[in-house]
Amino acid sequence: MNSIVNCTDSELRMRALIQAIPDLVWLKDTEGVYLSCNARFEQFFGVLEGAIVGKTDYDFVAKELADFFRKNDQVAMAKGGPSRNEEWVTFASDGHRELLETTKTPVRDAKGNVIGVLGIGHDITERNRNELALVESEDRFRTVFEISLDAIVLHRNGKLLFVNPAAVQMFGAKSAQELLDKPIRDLIHPDSYKLVLERVKAATEHGIAGPRLEEKYIKLDGTVFDVEAQGQPIFLSGQPAVLATLRDITERKAMEAKMHQMAFFDALTGLPNRRMLGDRLSQTIAVSKRSGLYCALMFLDMDNFKPLNDTYGHEVGDLLLIEVARRLTECLREVDTVARFGGDEFVVMLSELGAGKTLSTEQAAGVAEKIRASLAAPYLLTVARQENHVTTVEHHCTTSIGVVVFVNHEASQADIMNWADAAMYQAKDAGRNAVRFYNLPH
Predict the structure, then answer these.
(1) Do 234 and 90 lie in a common domain?
(2) If pLDDT is split at 50, 70 and 90, which confidence band does 383 have?
(3) Which residues have a Cβ under 8 Å from the Cβ of 434 and sit 6 or more positions away?
(4) Do 427 and 300 belong together in one domain?
(5) Which range of residues forms the domain containing residue 343?
(6) pTM of structure
(7) What is the SS3 assignment for 144?
């Protein structure tokens, strides 16, 4: 703290810089005590700097929020670099509530020791006005946006006029010079270019700031990546331009896809799981209500699966289940669904068969027989037992299939599943490797 206060020249230069920035700017020591702030900070808090210096966040906001701010300060100091956060803030001065996007950067002395935190707070509720003011002042623009963790680009007439360091890194450039004057078309994936062009036109011709949207962009090396982008219309030297904020969401999209895969698909076979099957069955029933076409649901249970597991282990059993999934998929149309229900049980759903029950039943019987024959063919399962040693296991495994043919509102999902399951047990009782239909009650 003393290192900051006693260096008069440094303090004067810091204060001049702080006062030139239209965003909230403040300086704290390592204990979270305010040392300085700018006029915008005073305005936001509704308190003059003299009443702020020497106090902490606990004097202005609720304890929970003050704890949050304090933790962010400590994270920035421990990280040794900029740290960004967003938070709704309710201020005790007059109860107003604003959404702030803050960037906190550790301040060091001549020896490299962290002696405090410099904070810059961006009032997101006034994003358009603040960004306009920043762009029209090059010094202020660079002061705030050079430390932004989001990529920020300024373009006009289809060419880049400004990029911040985060944008340089995002697009894989060695320096900003590689991007300046580059056509934005070269950085936007063809799938997204029409959408971006429409947003640019709305911004430059009509002054419309678009919402944050997901788009695809291209790095200089050709790598395609996902971006969450938002463009703001501004005037630069009296001419319309667009200030765009880009956030790389590739990892987030990959995680979302992974979570979706885990939630709705079987990890072993890649087939829809029981949860996805329920969604598909619900959609199929709804389509049947509109079209009046019959559908069919099959419940399959492998007849000779357990001995394979007991003799050769679960690794070989898994190989058989993967092969079963492949054969089932080959027997069906794209509009049909095959799901792994659990263990060695599978469910097949046939959509849009026909308007008559007799013909639809014949169609379902043909598919069921095709499946039965396919799954009855011998399985050659290759597994590596030891290093450089491969074992091939030949196994014969049939299936028992229960089928129910239904249309529109005849039954609930649970009824349809139960009827198909009951028909499958009839196939088991009939000696296995068989197909049995459930006759709906009249």
Answers:
(1) no
(2) confident
(3) 372, 400, 401, 427
(4) yes
(5) 265-437
(6) 0.51
(7) helix
